[in-house]
Amino acid sequence: MRDPSHEEQIVRWANFVKNNPHKWKAKVKDFMDAQIIMSNNFYKRLLKTPNGKQKLILLRNK
To answer: pLDDT of 1-57, one tens digit each?
Structure first.
């Protein structure tokens, strides 16, 4: 079981997102953009491997 402070943090973040629909996006934009770039780079590398296209199809269908 997680520490009660973890749940409190989730509630605080959910309230912040709900009450500040434009502000929260700026806080996570760089992180989300980096995640998308990293996943796209991974997919490109995967396509270069043997059976990479089939592996990518399997990954995206899960």
So the answer is: 678 899 999 999 999 999 998 888 888 999 999 999 999 999 999 999 999 999 999
- For residue 24, the SS3 value is helix
Return the half-sphere exposure (C-beta side, CA atoms, 13 A cut-off) of residue 57.
Answer: 4
Is the Cβ–Cβ distance between 8 and 16 less than 8 Å?
no
Q: Which residues contact 46 (CB under 8 A, 6 or more apart)?
A: 52, 55, 56, 59
The rounded distance, in Å, linking the Cα atoms of 30 and 2 is: 28
CA dist 20 and 29 (Å) reads 15
Q: Token pair of 15, please? A: 């309230």
